[in-house]
Amino acid sequence: MRIEAAASVKTPGLEGLLSACRAHDGYAFLELASSLNAHKDMGSLFLAGEGDRLLGALYVFAPRKDEAEIGGLVLPESRRQGVFAAMLRAAEEELCRYGYRDELLVVDSRSAGGKSLASRLGAGHEYTEYAMRYAGLAPVRAPGGPELALERLGIDRLEALVELRSCEFGDSREETEDFERATFASCDRRSYGAFLGGRLVGACSLGYDGRKVSINGLVVDKASRGRGIGQALLGMVLAMLHAEGLEIELDVNSLNANAYHIYRKAGFETISAREYYRRRL
Ligand SMILES: CC(C)(COP(=O)(O)OP(=O)(O)OC[C@H]1O[C@@H](n2cnc3c(N)ncnc32)[C@H](O)[C@@H]1OP(=O)(O)O)[C@@H](O)C(=O)NCCC(=O)NCCS
Q1: Distance set, CA 132 to CA 21, 24, 69, 70, 206 (Å)
Q2: All domains in the chain, ordered by first residue
Q3: What's the sign of the alpha-carbon dihedral 96, 99, 101, 103?
Q4: Ligand 1, closest atom to CA 227?
Q5: CA of 130 to the centre of ligand 1 (A)
Q6: pLDDT in tens, 98-147
Q7: Is the CB of 219 under 6 A from ligand 1?
Q8: What pTM, to 2 d.p., does this model score?
Q9: Low pLDDT (below 70) residues in the chain
Q10: Residue 144 Cβ < 6 Å to ligand 1
Q11: Residue nearest atom 26 of ligand 1, based on CA coordinates
Q12: Residue 223 Cβ < 6 Å to ligand 1
């Protein structure tokens, strides 16, 4: 068996691997947003192959410099033969070269094999993230909410955006700035801001993938929370995306009861859950 870091996410055989796993398990997932990784030159996709055949793939998603998310999949007929473990060793060596101390193994809640692997590796369950899909009606603006203006943000708003976001998602100011710059540089991503009386009070970013779009990093300025701004911003973004006929998705941490509440209330339904297991490298 050969283990190598892929030069590009457009690797031949990857689609076939995803389809084979989807047909067998009913789901398949690889996070291929490596352009958001803190170290752009770090290996982020590791492949196991034999001859021309791709046996497995493992991704590293690491927008932060202290912890990296790792997930992967192996062809159904090649499981329980050490394929994932071999890819993981290669990924961990790379992470150690870049000074990472912690990894978060990402396991679909339906994967009994993934859970038992995490437990055998001594990784502890930390939280679960729900993947949600918008299943509501055409959104309408709730009467009596704050009078917000929604605007697509350009790089000239970088500083205000970093001010709003830093430390909110466990990132440092420097990591937030790098992340926002990568978002502005990506042709698949857009940032939107909510303005109240000309002041930026909330934001979110959108990730486009064909007819699908994900809403990420919704945030409201600390001093303005609890006044309906989060829901009003979400409603405006939903109205815009719904009018474009897109399928709208997002992820939310199970510990974030406030955010989960507003997504459910807006018309999102949970479609799957991913469990995060932490392990010291
Ligand atoms: C999540 C966030 C964007 C919400 O913004 P906000 O402007 O405070 O939200 P709103 O005022 O519009 O609505 C808050 C709702 O949550 C409810 N809520 C507050 N605390 C809650 C809790 N612990 N559990 C459940 N619901 C809660 C409020 O009652 C209100 O709902 P209601 O109108 O039905 O009564 C904001 O808290 C934030 O920026 N958090 C940090 C970043 C974050 O976690 N983002 C989510 C990423 S997925």
Answers
A1: 21, 23, 20, 21, 15
A2: 2-122 (3.40.630.30), 133-273 (3.40.630.30)
A3: negative
A4: 11
A5: 16
A6: 999 999 999 999 999 999 999 999 999 999 999 999 998 877 666 566 78
A7: yes
A8: 0.82
A9: 140-145
A10: no
A11: 258
A12: no
